[in-house]
Amino acid sequence: MPVEDGAAITVPTEVAVAQRDVDALAHQYGEMARLIVAEGAPTAEFQARLEAAFVGTFRSDAIAFFGGQAAEGFRGWRRPPADPVTRVLSVSTWTSTCRKLRVTQSLTGFIPDAPADHDLGWMWLVPRPADAHNPTGWAVTADLPDSHVRDKEYC
Fold first, then answer.
1. Residues 6+ apart with CB under 8 A from 54
2. CB neighbour list of residue 86: distance below 8 Å, 6 or more residues apart
3. Is 2 left (phi over 0), alpha (psi -120 to 50) or beta?
4. What are 27-53's pLDDT values in tens digits?
5. Which of 3, 12, 41, 154 registers the highest number of CB atoms within 10 A of its CB?
6. What percent of the chain has a predicted confidence (pLDDT) above 70?
7. What is the pTM of this model?
8. Nearest Cα to 81, choosing from 35, 34, 47?
9. Is the pLDDT confidence value at 4 over 50?
10. b vs e for 95-110, b when ≥16 Cβ sit within 10 Å of the residue's Cβ?
11. How far from each other are the two terminal CA atoms of the chain, in whole angstroms?
């Protein structure tokens, strides 16, 4: 998808396109955090956003993460939480059915004491219909460090 840049036409790199989608997904993650912190427990809106942005292993991990934090009253969290920052370092797989991205993430927008630029390892995105909660057309299915990846794929 070419982008006009003054007089020249440039084609965004896979990393740049992936970063745009990951930024939108991180914003949805932030929206989920703001909803659940404000309500103190999952709501229908929280669930709709969760289902729009996360599938498979990552959805299960997100439910466990937010549930555990809610049980502790979101102790140490920012009020309201900001969006997490996820940075795409490289792209390993880029197809119409799968994107495997090397990423770092900072959850300091949620929890000030969280590590900044934590090396997540690999993040897998799979296609899903775009909607109001997730305009990207992609959902996160897993993120795992190198030590857990082996030869397993998540899309």
1. 62, 139, 140, 141
2. 22, 23, 25, 26, 103, 104, 105, 106, 120, 123
3. beta
4. 999 999 999 999 999 999 999 999 999
5. 154
6. 88
7. 0.86
8. 34
9. no
10. eeebbbbbbbbbbbbb
11. 24
All residues at 6 or more sequence positions from 117 whose CB lies less than 8 Å from its CB, including other chains: 87, 104, 105, 106
| Residue position matching structure tokens 């740049």 | 16
Contact between 114 and 82 (Cβ < 8 Å): no
Of the candidates 107, 144, 95, the residue with the CA atom closest to the CA atom of residue 123: 144
DSSP β-bridge partners for residue 121:
103
Backbone angles phi, psi at 51, to 5 degrees: -70, -25
Residue 84, C-beta contacts closer than 8 angstroms, at least 6 positions apart: 26, 29, 30, 105, 106, 107, 109, 110
The length of the chain, given as a count of residues: 155
Q: Tell me, what amino acid is at 84?
A: P
